[in-house]
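Minutes, project check-in
Item: structure for the 508-residue chain
Input as provided by the requester:
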Amino acid sequence: MTAAPTLTRRLAALATDRGESPAVTDGTQSVGFSDLRERADAVASGLAGAGVRAGDRVVMLARNRVELFEVLFGCARIGAVFTAMNWRLTEADLRELIADSGARVAFVESAFAGAVPAGVDRVEFGAGYDSWRSAGADRRDDRGDGGAAADDSDAVVLQFYTSGTTGRPKGVEISHDNLAYLVRAGERWQLGPDRVAAAAMPFFHMGGSAWGLVTILLGGTCRVIDDFDPEAYLAVVETERVTNALLAPTMLQMLLDAPSVEARDLSSLTSIAYGSAPITPALLARIREVFAVPLLQLYGLTETCGGIVQLDDDDHRGELLTSVGRPYPWVEVTIADPEGNPVDVAETGEIWVRSPQCSRGYWRNPEATADLIGADGWLRTGDAGSVTAEGYLFVTDRIKDMVITGGENVYPSEVERVLAEHPDVADLAVFGVSDAVWGEAVTAAVVLRPGGDVDGPELIEWMRPRIAGYMRPKTVHVMDDLPRNPAGKILKRDLRAVVEAGSDGAGR
């Protein structure tokens, strides 16, 4: 692949080709492609006037909003690096991450302004931001061109901090070249001109921002949703004729449980993409029944610049329902044992990937980067899985989530698939807790469906004929809910800590 066009060049072409066609809207304001370019240029001028130069980080601390894209493209215009922060973190954590980024300017909603450290210029959305952007528009000659970095496809343009489910968040660097491959993936997500894609996943995660950004870069309309509410989401799909959706399995379950779902006209939908967490066959069947559209499962990491493996709608059948699909043509996948040697077909090991779509590593963290990417370019995902002879990837678990009990390896997802078949179980997680006899004990936490009436011992007994004894949970905790991060992933370390502390939060 030849050098990819930078985001600035892509937006310039779209402004010419798509003009006033809507690029991004939130239901109250709609910004066309040419207007988006004008706004981005104004932001670039404002940043240059504030002393931001190529390679500097610029922070955004806000819920999903239209302005994200004009700030992002404005950063790209001068070679700066757009860095979205997780506003759900504590102020202390945010101050630490902003300091780690070295940002000179932070764009924030007023509710999060207290998290911006002293010495960082703060621009608050609302009247203050509008005035700041207008001032930038008045002095465009001061913008500069950002130097070589602004037109270097290998330059970093985005930075996302990992969610921290397994440790301290690290800043993942994403280049224009990485995004060029993600755009190619977006064509496989059925995005393109005249498509309207609902963007409800949080923009401070790679998945949320990538979905909206790729929609725009392919000439479609990104419908920004700042807070996911099932009834409001369904109303947007119906009234604004949304064609494409990206949702976590928990969000899909919430939509199916919404009282109005069956009465809505959702015929505009052409596909639903999902990812970030496992999904049960029962939930998939219900999705097909209610939405009756093609389903696309995506697998990827922040470090892989989003989705790199896809399960197409035609493959949603039989045993493949538990697969995440096959890698894109520009992605290599291998399965390695703990010594880094390839394992045989269908054997379980760590999933390694190699692709020009993958990040170069972590911001200011060479040690973590060396742990992530080997000298031969293979990126270690930390996920356990296997690959069939036909190339289908099965993700078993996080390597660190594997339970070693009595010398046997137990992958929680294998237990979860069985337990999910119980009609009273709505949500669940399987994990290991310390045990004096077994080393670790297989443990489950479940949330029951409304009206469900079963306790832990009954669930264990129900599993007895369905799964090997060493894999069967020693205890099952019935809980009111399970802790999740904003991307919908269950925080098993939090569950483990609660259970080991002896307070399981059980609803009974």
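Outcome recorded: Residues 484 and 490 are 4 Å apart (CA to CA).
No further action items on this chain.
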